[in-house]
């Protein structure tokens, strides 16, 4: 009742909800105490062991697992989330008070990232519920492709029909390929007028689709149109900057195409480089105080997303503003039960945990940044207009006068005056899009997206948290953005490898979380959270070791686990059982199926021993100065959703060595199990139980567990074609496995 009488303008735009987390904490503490008991037990009984090696290795690995467990507990200890109220915002604020927002979309390759996907993302963003004259959309094309530019021009034409259609009929999904997908049809009670418009729109979109597909199919002839002449004879890695204003001053947001200058002599820093060009070009052209960045495959799924973001921007819950506002990733057309374990379903608890510390990580996409934060300001910096001297900004922002002038406005928080139209600023924009512009400036070091890691997102977010900013994450219903998860096993591995590599690079950079806590303003618990994620690649080493241990013990007749008749066996079993039931319970609460839980569990092991291990190794190679990994763009697939296709969920393999460690682990454990079973057969019937005890039931069970985790690989050994592991990989892995078994036998004699 009280609420109704309350003045609607005084209601908060966002509310924070603290979730009860007592049960989880109790279980996590229980697991921690079991892990600690195990470690103590190992220390106490070390002297009783015949074989020190496995015992010691197990102790080291388990210490590591305990450490990671503690980090995870620290993140998840407090749980909270926020809810935003766009309707209250609309009552409270007038549209003309809304800030301008610059939208950045990045694409890098028209083949791996089909234009039609990118253009749907663009359309969904152009059509959001927000005043169109307050928006500018910048598309960065690292592929320097005339097809992408052509598609954008055609898309802007279609947008002039699409935006009014969406807004008039309040369409919910504003990416046409989803809206017109097979399961959306007209309803009985739709008005005649709507039916007519719907059909018209569907046809128009069909035409756009055909145009884009046709343009992508054959070689593009740039000569016939002067507008495309700049694309003649350009190479994607060596060309001048191309900036084109596709649309301005119409009832459409500004639409601008950018292909930054590239030259093989200059490092382009992949996505981080592209983001910095976008920041500078938009700084010169529109200079909005808020910037949203979206990967080319992440379409806006909720038209109110920008209003949700404004709720967070206008009504920061703390006495201090937030640096960035993240919407979590979700995926469309995700494969059933997540066979490759890459849909991040179980990240929910981590996100809510981070919300109770300094705020969620920056995930690289679907995130609103304050421009002043990207420009390097700290929360308490107060800069007066009269104190900012444009000349002094030279070393930070570079030579361009237009950029420095606009940056001065942002830094001092001055109101924006009437600006020139984007097309009159193309020359200035081309200047800041040059590949040598950044030399001798702070771009990539203190300002903009930071260089030095393939996970530029986490690194940039860490830099922002390190200056003391908080961040927030918002989970509206329906999901704000939906994107593509890698849809094949090899592409999923490539992505995981890049992440593991990039994350570990952060720890060896000067942005080490613990240093930022000591010297900067990163919260201690947030630093622990950053360690948890940045150590992904490093986890592969103890896990690899632990996957070999049971096999080693069976082959050599030694032990790394307590024997069945030993009381401590209960501890080991307790850890395994309680942990798995706990994760299952966590998944169940999120509505995740049993099958998906199993896939997540086993794929976590597979990914760690393959992709993360390679990510780890490539950081080692980089440290030794031997090689530097490149950003491999993930392939985006535009699937037609005609029923569930069983084949797409099947594992496919290529010749890449990345799966080899997994195959070796599998072969070694298979050998050990055969070995163990043969030995059991030799002992008499009445001694079988004694035999089991002698062999070590724990070790046998562990080996079976490894086998179950690598079950898909086991099937791959016997399949042919793309569904089978290539025979060359099997042979090489077989040799390595034999070598391992041989070494085990040798070490037995010590
Ligand atoms: O040289 C490059 C390479 C990539 N991209 C763009 O970067 C985005 C992300 O690339 P993608 O291959 O889709 O990588 P994902 O693994 O799916 O991306 C996740 O991980 C990246 C860091 O590894 C983050 O940058 C992303 O935002 C995050 O979604 C795409 O829009 C690309 O077009 C560029 O613009 N230039
Ligand atoms: Mn992606």
Distance between the termini: 80 Å
Helix proportion: 40-55%
Globular, elongated, flat, extended or rod-shaped: what is the shape? globular
Number of helices: 27
Pfam families: Cellulose_synt
Protein name: Cellulose synthase-like protein H1
Main location: membrane
Binding site for Mn(2+): 271, 295
Describe this structure in a few short sentences.
This protein has 750 residues and is α/β, with parallel strands linked by helices. The chain contains 27 helices and twelve strands.
Write the topology of this structure.
Blueprint: H1 2-5, E1 14-19, H2 22-44, H3 52-76, E2 79-84, H4 86-92, E3 101-107, H5 115-126, E4 135-141, H6 146-168, H7 176-179, H8 192-217, E5 242-247, E6 254-259, H9 270-285, E7 290-295, E8 299-300, H10 305-314, E9 322-326, H11 348-355, E10 367-370, H12 371-374, H13 394-397, H14 401-412, H15 426-432, H16 456-466, E11 470-473, E12 481-482, H17 489-507, H18 513-519, H19 524-534, H20 540-556, H21 569-589, H22 594-623, H23 660-682, H24 688-695, H25 697-709, H26 711-718, H27 727-748
Parallel strand pairs: 3-4, 3-7, 4-6, 9-11
Antiparallel strand pairs: 1-2, 5-6, 7-10, 8-12, 9-10
Helix pairs in contact: 2-3, 2-21, 3-11, 3-19, 3-20, 5-6, 6-8, 9-14, 9-15, 17-22, 18-19, 20-22, 20-23, 20-25, 23-24, 23-25, 23-27
Bound molecules: uridine-5'-diphosphate-glucose and manganese (II) ion.
């Amino acid at each position: 009742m009280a609420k109704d009488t309350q003045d609607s303008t005084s209601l908060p735009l966002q509310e924070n909800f603290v979730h009860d987390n007592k049960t989880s904490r109790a279980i996590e503490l229980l697991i921690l105490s079991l892990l600690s008991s195990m470690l103590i037990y190992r220390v106490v009984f070390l002297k009783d062991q015949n074989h020190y090696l496995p015992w010691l290795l197990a102790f080291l690995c388990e210490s590591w697992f305990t450490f990671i467990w503690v980090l995870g507990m620290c993140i998840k200890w407090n749980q909270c989330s926020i809810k935003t109220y766009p309707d209250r915002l609309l009552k409270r604020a007038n549209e003309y008070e809304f800030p301008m927002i610059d939208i950045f979309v990045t694409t890098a390759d028209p083949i791996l990232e089909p234009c039609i996907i990118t253009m749907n993302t663009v359309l969904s963003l152009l059509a959001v519920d927000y005043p169109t004259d307050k928006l500018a959309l910048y598309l960065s094309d690292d592929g320097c492709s005339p097809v992408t530019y052509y598609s954008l021009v055609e898309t802007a034409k279609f947008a002039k029909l699409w935006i009014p259609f969406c807004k008039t009929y309040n369409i919910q999904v504003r990416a046409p390929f989803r809206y017109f997908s097979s399961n959306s049809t007209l309803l009985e009670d739709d008005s005649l007028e709507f039916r007519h418009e719907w059909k018209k729109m569907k046809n128009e979109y069909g035409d756009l689709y055909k145009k884009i597909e046709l343009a992508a199919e054959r070689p593009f002839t740039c000569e016939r149109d002067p507008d495309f002449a700049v694309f003649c004879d350009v190479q994607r890695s060596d060309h001048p900057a191309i900036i084109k204003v596709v649309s301005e001053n119409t009832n459409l947001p500004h639409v601008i195409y950018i292909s930054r200058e590239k030259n093989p002599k200059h490092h382009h820093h992949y996505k981080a480089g592209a983001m910095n060009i976008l920041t500078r070009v938009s700084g010169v052209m529109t200079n909005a105080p808020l910037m949203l960045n979206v990967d080319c495959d992440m379409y806006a799924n909720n038209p109110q997303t920008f209003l949700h973001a404004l709720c967070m921007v206008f009504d920061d819950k703390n006495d201090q503003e937030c640096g960035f506002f993240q919407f979590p990733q979700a995926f469309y057309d995700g494969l059933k039960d997540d066979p490759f374990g890459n849909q991040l379903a179980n990240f929910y608890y981590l996100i809510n945990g981070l919300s109770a510390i300094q705020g969620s990580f920056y995930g690289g996409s679907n995130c609103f940044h304050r421009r002043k934060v990207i420009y390097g300001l700290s929360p308490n910096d107060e800069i007066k207009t009269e104190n900012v001297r444009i000349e002094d900004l030279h070393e930070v922002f570079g030579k361009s006068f237009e950029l420095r002038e606009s940056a001065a406005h942002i830094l001092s928080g001055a109101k924006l005056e009437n600006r020139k139209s984007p097309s009159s600023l193309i020359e200035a924009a081309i200047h800041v899009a040059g590949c040598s512009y950044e030399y001798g400036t702070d771009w990539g070091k203190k300002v903009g997206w930071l260089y030095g890691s393939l996970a530029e997102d986490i690194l940039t977010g860490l830099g922002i948290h390190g200056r003391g900013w908080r961040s927030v994450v918002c989970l509206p219903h329906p999901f704000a953005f939906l994107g593509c998860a890698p849809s094949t096993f090899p592409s999923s591995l490539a992505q995981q490898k890049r992440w593991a590599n990039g994350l570990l690079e952060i720890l060896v950079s000067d942005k080490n979380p613990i240093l930022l806590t000591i010297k900067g303003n990163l919260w201690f618990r947030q630093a622990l959270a950053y360690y948890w994620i940045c150590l992904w690649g490093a986890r592969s080493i103890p896990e690899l070791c632990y996957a070999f241990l049971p096999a080693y013990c069976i082959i050599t007749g030694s032990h790394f686990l307590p024997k069945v008749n030993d009381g401590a066996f209960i501890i080991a079993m307790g850890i395994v059982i309680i942990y798995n039931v706990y994760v299952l319970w966590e998944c169940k609460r999120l509505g995740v199926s049993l099958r998906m839980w199993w896939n997540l569990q086993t794929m976590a092991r597979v990914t760690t021993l393959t992709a993360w291990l390679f990510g780890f190794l490539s950081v080692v190679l980089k440290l030794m100065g031997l090689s530097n990994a490149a950003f491999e763009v993930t392939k985006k697939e535009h699937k037609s959703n005609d029923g569930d296709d069983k084949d797409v969920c099947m594992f496919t393999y290529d010749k890449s060595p990345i799966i080899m460690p997994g195959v070796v682990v599998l072969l070694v454990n298979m050998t050990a199990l055969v070995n163990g079973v043969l030995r059991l057969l030799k002992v008499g019937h009445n001694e079988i139980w004694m035999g089991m005890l002698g062999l070590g039931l724990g070790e046998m069970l562990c080996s079976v567990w490894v086998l179950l985790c690598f079950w898909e690989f086991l099937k791959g050994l016997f399949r042919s074609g793309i569904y089978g592991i290539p025979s060359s990989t099997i042979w090489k892995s077989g040799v390595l496995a034999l070598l391992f078994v041989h070494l085990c036998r040798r070490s037995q004699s010590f």
